[in-house]
Amino acid sequence: MGKRFAARLFLLAFLLAMPLAFAQVTPSPNPATVQITNSLCQVVSLVRYVAGAIAILAFAILGIQFMTVGSNPMAREDIKTKMGYIAIGMFLILISNYIVAIFLPQAASCPFP
């Protein structure tokens, strides 16, 4: 009975100590890393705003062209194709934070305005 009790006590102590062994500590952020991440976030935001503005402007210009093209089916299809490309580009701009975070994990903490 004594060996069995000792084995159970050892097993209980081992199981209770495991969460302590797997505890993760949060490392303090390196100031240089924080500065690089902030700069990277600013660059990504700037690129997103500029590309978004260009895409909206191009979409508006193509919309006006589409309305004024008349009955030329080739020109209409060309404009529709360009609008599709702009829509894909706007979607990529929308998910740009996630794309950058794939290649640079430290940029995953960038706020998405």
Structural class: mainly alpha
**Count the helices. How many?**
4
Q: Into which percent range does the helicity of residues fall?
A: over 70%
Strand elements, count: 0
Radius of gyration: 28 Å
Notes on the structure:
It contains 4 helices and no strands. With 113 residues, it is mainly alpha-helical. It has helices spanning 2-21, 31-68, 73-94, 96-103. The protein has one domain (30-109). Helix 2 (31-68) packs antiparallel against helix 3.
Detail the topology: elements first, then pairings:
Layout: H1 2-21, H2 31-68, H3 73-94, H4 96-103
Helix pairs in contact: 2-3
Structure described in brief:
The chain is mainly α and 113 residues long. The chain has helices at residues 2-21, 31-68, 73-94, 96-103. Helix 2 (31-68) runs antiparallel to helix 3 (73-94).
Overview features:
113 residues; mainly alpha; 78% helix
